[in-house]
């Protein structure tokens, strides 16, 4: 297992040397969505608290770094942490309301969606942050401004983000924190009876998850050079965030990454061939079909199944 | 000094007074039985003691301090553990992983908690099943798992809610021996049980509840012949018909 990880890392580090710029773009998206999925996985997968509003943290992180850069000249390398802290604060507020008042299941989902939508509508109506048109970042190509002439630096930054989130999830998983999150997900009352402070650990998971997701906002903004309320705070982005860990295996360490390696190329290629081939929206149908297939045939996600298959083969 | 003292404890659900001004004490090292017909309020008493419900009136002291208003996790950490009548295993965790959750209370590092959990799993006789997912256990095994998890928190007082319900006579005999062993190791036990033979055999003292009120208290032999108890279980006619 250890050697497989080292080999995979070596391949991913060497890959940009041989890839076309389009392939690099696909990999950047795989890593970036894998990163967002892993960040979500901490609260949505391990703790089982289904947030469908994680776009709000991307939006808060991205807008904060962009505004600080445009208005105050602060480098996004620092701004991304300010943005992540504000995203974590928003996560703490949402978590407090949801967990203190015992909102579970659909009610928690609705709370998170509502917060993200309120943020989206608020940002759309505040002209100081660009209103409905959003913000545009002037391209300078200056690495100190989180801007690069070609895709390779973004490739390595996105990879580093994905690895950092995965290392965080790994550290949580093997500690008491992770055991307690799993217990809360399985049966919160039983966990409480066994000394688990469910409120505290759900809050911690939410704060860590929203902080990481907020970091991603800066990457999003400075990779695309533009921020629109509908794309950064919208429900479609929240769906993109949760769909990969669910397909790959929520609450597993490699599920979000596997999910992103399956779904991101599928989304991009079907958008390219079906969308531009005169079938706009067809990639969404492909998404939908795959999601239905996963729910029907792999309710735990792809990764647990893959692990069992490998274990069986290894056993022979 | 008593381990647990409840004074004037009351709980109302709408129009139903589930527990009415209950006084109850558990002494250190004691095995106390709590019996009563269905709906007498026994499980409500457990929920009040373990923090899952807050009383409308009255007080509960555990180890000399009031625990009213504390959350279940805080009460567990003070040394008062409970099992659930309807078992609540973490179904996708293995037996060992289930017990590990409880062991983390006093052993916050995961490897040590796992070692501790292994001992407890062995002790309740689930050693051969430790790597099986809890969802795949039989009812008798789940009852033992429920017991093992609570035991892993290393409580001073253990509240057992019908750990024998649904078991066959052989399984009941096993679990009686298990509870005796736990008690002998120094854990005080408060036991809700419908199996009269078991509760009479295990308890040093028995408290009888009916409609939320304490109607009798005494050693098992007294309780078995107490007219109010027979009346509560079998009806007034039975008491009049019985030979004096």
Question: Can you tell me the CATH topology of the largest domain in chain B?
Answer: Rossmann fold
The biggest beta sheet of chain B reads: 6 strands, mixed
CATH top level of the largest domain in chain B? Alpha Beta
**How many structural domains are formed by the residues of chain A?**
1
Rounded mean pLDDT of chain A is 91
**How many beta-strand segments of chain B?**
10
Task: Flag low-confidence runs of chain B.
Answer: none
Oligomeric organization of the protein chains? heterodimer
Residues in helix, % of chain A:
over 70%
CATH architecture label of the largest domain in chain B: 3-Layer(aba) Sandwich
> Can you tell me the CATH class of chain A?
Mainly Alpha
Order of helices and strands of chain A: HHHHHEHHHHEHHHHH
The coarse silhouette of chain B is globular
For the termini of chain B, the CA-CA separation is 39 Å
Summarize the structure in words.
The complex is a heterodimer of chains A (316) and B (244). Chain A is mainly α and 316 residues long. Chain A has a single domain, classed as ABC transporter involved in vitamin B12 uptake, BtuC. Chain A contains 14 helices and two strands, in the order H-H-H-H-H-E-H-H-H-H-E-H-H-H-H-H. In chain A, helix 2 (21-46) packs across helix 12 (255-275), helix 6 packs antiparallel against helix 9 (198-224) and helix 12 runs antiparallel to helix 13. Chain A is globular and about 55 Å long. The two termini of chain A are 17 Å apart. The relative contact order of chain A is 0.17. The model of chain A has no long low-confidence stretch (mean pLDDT 91). By secondary structure, chain B is of the alpha/beta class. Chain B has two domains: 1-79 and 158-213, 3-Layer(aba) Sandwich (Rossmann fold); 87-154. Chain B has helices at 42-49, 72-77, 95-103, 110-123, 139-152, 169-184, 196-202, 220-224, 227-234, 236-241; strands at 4-13, 16-26, 31-35, 57-62, 65-66, 80-82, 157-161, 188-192, 205-210, 213-218. In chain B, the strands form two sheets. Chain B has a six-stranded mixed beta sheet with strand order 6-7-8-3-9-10, sandwiched between helices. Chain B has a four-stranded antiparallel beta sheet with strand order 2-1-4-5, with helices on one face. In chain B, helix 3 (95-103) packs parallel to helix 5 (139-152). The mean pLDDT of chain B is 92. Classes of the chains: A mainly alpha (316), B alpha/beta (244). The interface between A and B is medium-sized, with 19 and 31 residues.
